[in-house]
Specification:
Blueprint (H helix, E strand, L loop, with lengths): L1 H24 L9 H10 L6 H16 L4 E2 L17 E7 L3 E6 L6 H11 L5 E5 L8 H7 L9 E7 L4 E6 L10 E5 L5 H10 L5 E5 L7 E7 L5 E11 L14 E2 L9 H5 L9 H13 L3 H21 L1
């Protein structure tokens, strides 16, 4: 009897502890909005959450255990790249002196690859294009596959795409090889992420492309608007990418070929000071001044422009 009573006593204490933990962690009740429903919905779509963290932190804890940048949008709240999103990803397209061009994009969204390629191909007569991907993201790997044709051969394997559980969903290839573009100087920084970071990763090291700036974010996640039970929606990392030639990694920064520290000197102050008088400039000096004014205050653009001008000078010297 003593043994039975002792066992009953410990079972009773264990039940009390479990009841205390349930109250303390606010375990979800059954229903359409229960945490178990949310977790099951995510897991059935290949999105793996930390259940222990979810019990303690609720829906917000679930989502942040998957993706620290997750955003709950609600049933009627528009998510990123929905209502009000720009119709074009082109932020700037400018023809500069010294036969250079500047193209800045906000990211890679559906069908943007063809749009960007069209602009780059229109600049085929230029001596070089400054392709600015700083701060660019986007979630469309298909556009990255289109743009990769500027440097890679048709059907070259590029990315392996998985769900958050690691299951392989697809392998992306170069859509088609494109006509030789002008020399591309691609500007990147920590704000380069998503599909834009993926594009930088597969263009690095290939002929006709130079990466300049700072290391990219190193985030292999691709995000989309995902519907949860009960009408909630969330902007969430639902897939991951990695280069075919690489191994799965939590950090996959793309290092530039030329690193430019944010504190680097300007380099054009002396030039500007020598032209503060009213004397008439030569056509070449006037062109140089305009170019320097365009890149003033942006050390990455200054370095990129210097490199392009230097390569032009070498090319002209070699032809003479």
């Amino acid at each position: 009897m003593k043994g039975r009573g002792s066992t009953f006593y410990y079972r009773l204490r264990l039940a009390g502890v479990l009841l205390f933990l349930a109250k303390g962690f606010a375990l979800p009740a059954a229903g359409a909005d229960s945490l178990d429903d949310y977790l099951s919905c995510l897991e059935s779509n290949g999105i793996l959450a930390d259940r222990a963290a979810a019990v303690q932190s609720g829906l917000k804890g679930i989502l942040q255990s998957i993706d620290p940048d997750a955003v709950i949008c609600g049933e009627k709240t528009p998510g990123p790249m929905e209502e009000g999103a720009p119709t074009s990803v082109i932020s700037a397209l400018e023809l500069w002196p010294e036969n250079l061009a500047y193209l800045k994009v906000s990211g890679l969204e559906p069908d943007s690859g063809d749009e960007i390629v069209g602009h780059i191909e229109s600049l085929s007569g230029r001596g070089g294009v400054l392709f600015d991907l700083r701060g660019a993201r986007g979630e469309d790997l298909k556009s990255a596959c289109v743009l990769a044709g500027l440097a890679r051969r048709q059907n070259d394997p590029l990315f392996i795409v998985t769900d958050n559980c690691g299951r392989v969903l697809e392998t992306n290839l170069v859509a088609k090889a494109l006509a030789r573009a002008p020399l591309l100087v691609v500007l990147i920084d920590r704000g380069t992420s998503g599909a834009s970071e993926a594009l930088a990763s597969v263009m690095k090291g290939h002929s006709g492309v130079i990466l300049i700036g700072a290391a990219t974010k190193g985030d292999p996640s691709l995000r989309s608007l995902f519907s949860l039970p009960g009408g909630k929606r969330v902007w969430l990392a639902t897939r991951k990418w990695r280069p075919v030639t690489g191994k799965p990694s939590k950090k996959m920064e793309v290092m530039p070929d030329v690193v430019v520290a944010s504190g680097s000197g300007g380099g054009n102050d002396g030039f500007l000071r020598t032209n503060l008088t009213n004397r008439v400039l030569s056509t070449k000096s006037d062109s140089d001044k305009e170019l320097m004014m365009r890149v003033a205050g942006d050390v990455v653009l200054q370095r990129a422009t210097d490199i392009l001008l230097g390569l032009q000078a070498i090319g002209e010297y070699g032809r003479n």
